[in-house]
Design brief:
alpha/beta; 6-stranded mixed sheet; 3-stranded antiparallel sheet; 22 helices; 11 strands; globular
């Protein structure tokens, strides 16, 4: 973190870890016997709720790199072409930096004075609501709302290995046919409802096998592998079928493991992601300049300038660190310009400081691109928890809390449970869903929920649930079945499609451009591991020479038929 004071145009809250105080019996009694309700009653205000998560500075990872980007963006001979040099900022002015760098203020000045490439405009200026219709480029946002969501999967109590006797047994065949006709079913998740708006971050908490991964996959529109998905899911004015058929690239699911080509460098990885989603509607610039500019901006914001030429690496090839690899994944997802990102336990295997860096990088990406971010974490620290706006707690496939993250701790205290000494909020929330991990309040007279069903019923009667339903109603009125917003979103996507691409195709670039990008990436993968590639090439040539000389100058008679057959083999 830079030691410079925060600029006035980009005010952020300092993320400071504060230990939770010990819960006392006197405080519990006061909270329980208090006459005013702990939760505000639903009001008639029709405005959407404000964001509650802690902000993070844009120049958190690389302050010096962001300042260099500031100079490059404001120089007349930089990466942006100035239409009117007389009105542009001079190089003397840009080199003289007396105040802390304000990236948002700088980009606002650039938009007013010159034409900005659409990538920078969509990545950064969305947070300023500077959406100009220059070059007919329309930015777009996408939220998600789910109502009465229920996912059913195939489940069996026991599985047996097949033997010769079981395969030939007619009763086994009969049991298999009966199972295919009436398969054993179980509810993975049930009774989920809520909304995640653009610019918000949702944290999904729960014990293993509570349905966190299933919940994220359904929101990311990955429905294959489940028996049935019931309920309603709205992506603004679109249904899941419409998103899958036409806007598949705008909703993204990221598994807990980072899958990258280890021999490709960080710059090549980001360049390929940007090339496959490069829009056709751009300012007067080529595709190469557009992708290079986007790669430079993302590398600078996420602190990857010093590892641009470093291989990503894996368990066998040395590459970037674990935290840098997570930031590469975030930058790569941001380069694809997806509107909804679902991260499934992406902090697994990371230490607390690296996990906090991952969360801060997601906060920056969400604020800059105004995207919808949904993250599931099994073990989250207090500082990481404060970065999120909402939290969803799962208990054996039931949603037992969905609401503001800063109110979740007090909600369960008022329910009748108390946190352990110095226990963080995420650990307390997860411990409440464990029969042996939760601590009931000794002075609490009313019965407290014990099972997942009781927790879910208690939540549906709470004021937090009422606020959640009110937020869903506001979302429905503004976005669901809104023909104007649906048409504007479709026009924005169509303007980005290549000329040779179908209008309803989910892909941005044409088939020829995809083949060319894939062939180039394959060459980069082979050239990234030159030693192995050259060794394999030498071994093939050496073996060919050895085996070829063994059959050199064969006679042209029938006695060489067997040898010629060996050559063909």
């Amino acid at each position: 973190m830079s030691s410079d004071p925060q600029p006035s145009g980009l005010e952020t809250e300092q993320v400071v870890f504060s230990e939770p105080s010990e819960f006392t019996i006197e405080e519990a009694t006061q909270l329980h016997n208090a006459t005013p309700p702990r939760w505000p009653a639903p009001s008639n205000d029709r405005s959407p709720p404000k964001r509650r998560g802690t902000s993070c500075s844009v120049d958190f990872f690389d302050p010096a790199g962001v300042r260099r980007l500031h100079r490059a963006l404001t120089l007349p001979t930089g990466i942006i072409e100035m239409p009117d040099p007389a009105e542009s900022i001079t190089s003397d002015q840009t080199l003289e930096i007396t105040d802390p760098f304000d990236l948002e203020k700088t980009l606002k000045t650039i938009v007013q004075r010159c034409g900005v490439p659409p990538r920078i405009r969509k990545l950064i200026l969305n947070s300023l609501s500077l959406r100009k219709d220059a070059a007919h480029i329309q930015s777009r946002e996408l939220g998600v709302m789910f109502e009465n969501l229920r996912v059913t999967g195939l489940g069996s109590s026991a599985a047996y290995f097949s033997t010769v006797g079981s395969v030939l047994n007619p009763m086994t065949i009969y049991e298999k046919l009966r199972t295919l006709r009436n398969p054993p079913l179980r509810n993975i998740i049930e009774g989920f409802e809520g909304v995640v708006r653009p610019g918000e971050m949702l944290l999904v908490l729960g014990r293993p096998e509570s349905g966190c991964s299933t919940f994220l996959k359904i929101l990311a529109n990955h429905r294959s592998g489940y028996h049935s998905v019931q309920g309603k899911v709205y992506y603004d004015s679109f249904t899941p079928e419409q998103v899958y058929n036409q806007y598949r690239g705008d909703v993204q699911y990221c598994a807990e493991d980072d899958y990258h080509f280890p021999t490709m460098s960080v710059k090549q990885t980001l360049h390929f992601a940007g090339m496959t989603r490069v829009p056709h509607a751009r300012f007067e610039e080529s595709k190469g300049i557009y992708v290079n500019t986007m790669t430079e901006v993302l590398s600078t914001i996420f602190g990857l300038n010093h590892v641009q030429d470093t291989p990503v690496g894996d368990a066998a090839i040395r590459g970037v660190s674990g935290g840098e690899k997570k930031r590469v994944s975030i930058a790569e997802a941001l380069a694809t310009r997806s509107r909804i990102h679902c991260w499934d336990n992406s902090t697994r295997g990371l230490d607390s400081s690296t996990a906090l860096e991952f969360g801060r990088a997601l906060r920056i990406a969400t604020d800059i691109d105004h995207q919808t971010t949904i993250v599931s974490i099994y073990q989250a620290g207090e500082t990481l928890y404060e970065l999120f706006d909402k939290v969803c707690l799962l208990y054996e496939g039931r949603m037992v809390y969905y609401g503001p993250a800063d109110k979740a701790r007090q909600y369960f205290i008022d329910m009748g449970y108390q946190p352990a000494n110095r226990q963080t909020t995420p650990d307390f929330l997860v411990a409440v869903t464990h029969p042996t991990g939760r601590i009931p309040r000794q002075d609490f007279v009313s019965p407290v929920p014990r099972t997942a069903t009781e927790f879910a019923e208690y939540f549906l009667k709470s004021d937090v649930s009422m606020e959640n339903k009110r937020d869903m109603e506001l979302y429905k009125e503004a976005f669901v079945d809104n023909q104007e917003k649906r048409q504007a979103y479709g026009q924005s996507v169509s303007a980005e499609h290549a000329r040779s691409t179908r209008k309803k195709s989910p892909y941005t670039i044409s088939t020829f451009m995809q083949i060319r990008s894939l062939m180039r990436r394959r060459v980069q993968i082979l050239w990234g591991d030159k030693s192995s590639t050259l060794f394999l090439l030498f071994s093939f040539i050496f073996e060919g020479v050895i085996f070829g000389t063994a059959f050199l100058k064969l006679p042209e008679t029938t006695s060489a038929y067997f040898s010629r057959g060996g050559v063909l083999f």
